[in-house]
Design a protein that fits this description.
alpha/beta; three-stranded antiparallel beta sheet; 6 strands
């Protein structure tokens, strides 16, 4: 199998005995006994980001219904045929790449755009903050890439708008009327 993979997609896959739980991987596991399905279930639980592909021995094909119950994306039956194996690997690999490409965070997206063009991100984040749609601290931390140190939302102004600091002078911006307001006196 490793020769087929190296021939099909050179320098793409590595042989890993014990993958880390945080990383996404394609795990191929050979099923020779009925108890191996329990091991597949444990792999699925311990490596939730990974794709698990069981290779079932011919005498255990009656147990392949378990693969459907475990929601496995692929299943191979011994003896393996090169064309079928490579077709499934190609399908899984393209699905894996599409999944990796589609999981962009707000931080990664804002880093791709230059600093001059971050005002739409800033405005969108601050409007979400005003509406109460920001639910986690992680979202606020990710927004730090397009919010300057001088433009951190102030809890006093969350009901009316947000503060945009220019030349070290605060000007509250009222999101409802969309015009500049007179700054209040703070003691």
């Amino acid at each position: 199998m490793s020769y087929w993979l190296e021939e099909f997609l050179p320098n793409t896959f590595i042989n890993c005995e014990e993958p880390k739980t945080e990383i996404s991987a394609i795990i191929v596991y050979e099923i020779n006994r009925l108890f191996d399905w329990v091991k597949i279930n444990r792999l699925k639980r311990n490596y939730p980001n990974s794709i698990i592909v069981p290779i079932v021995a011919e005498h255990l094909t009656y147990s392949t219904g378990i693969a459907i119950e475990l929601n496995l994306t692929a299943l191979l039956i011994k003896p393996l045929q090169k064309a079928k194996f490579l077709r499934i690997v190609k399908k899984l690999y393209t699905a894996y790449q599409a999944k990796q490409a589609s999981t962009l965070t707000m931080l990664e997206l804002s880093q791709q755009i230059s600093q001059d063009h971050t005002s739409p991100f800033r405005e969108a984040f601050l409007k979400r903050l005003i509406r109460g749609e920001v639910e986690s601290e992680q979202e606020i931390i990710q927004s730090s890439s397009f919010l300057s140190r001088h433009c951190i939302p102030n809890i006093v102004f969350l009901i009316q708008g947000y503060i945009d600091v220019n030349e070290d002078r605060p000007y509250p911006h009222d999101a409802s009327c969309d015009h500049q307001c007179v700054p209040p006196k703070l003691c």
